[in-house]
Write a structure and sequence with these properties.
Layout (H helix, E strand, L loop, with lengths): L1 E9 L25 E2 L18 H11 L7 E12 L4 E3 L17 E9 L9 H4 L17 H9 L11 E9 L3
Antiparallel strand pairs: 1-2, 1-3, 3-4, 3-6, 5-6
Amino acid sequence: MIPVGYMAKRIATQIPEWLSAPAVRDIYSVSSCVNSDLAEEVPRWKLNGHGLFNSREEMRSIANSEGLDLQGMRVFYYEAGEREFDGEEWLPIEAESGYETRVQVPAEKSLEGFDVVTFCDGPNSHSPLSCNSVAAEVATNEHCLFQTKEEAEASLASQVFADAEPGPFRIYAIYSTDWD
């Protein structure tokens, strides 16, 4: 897994009606389809080559300069598998060129699970587990994430995401962390 960045999110307090997954109590997906995030409110050029922030400090600084309120937002740190699945094969991933990518790994982090993320409309476009209700077809944890990387890989291999969103698909480890 490679470090890809941070994001501040407002976690939805209600599960969308269209998501029929009884084990899910909240959604920690990478995309912003269910939860709003800070990336929606800042220009793309202020993010790194993975569409995320390089550090918590950078996120705070940009939010302050843009006049954005971070109150009530949770901080997540992400790592991605070194390859993405295009529906047929696993290919290497790289950060988008032209963006400064120098992710600082947090000293403390708590693994919440693994998400499968599409890159069909740019970085971190959709999380089909929550965005397309794939969680109704596979086992997820209470955060609408796979418990292990192996479960995410097996689901991609079984083509469970084939009718969700176009790929390529990346597997992200999602960690909660503090603002400090």
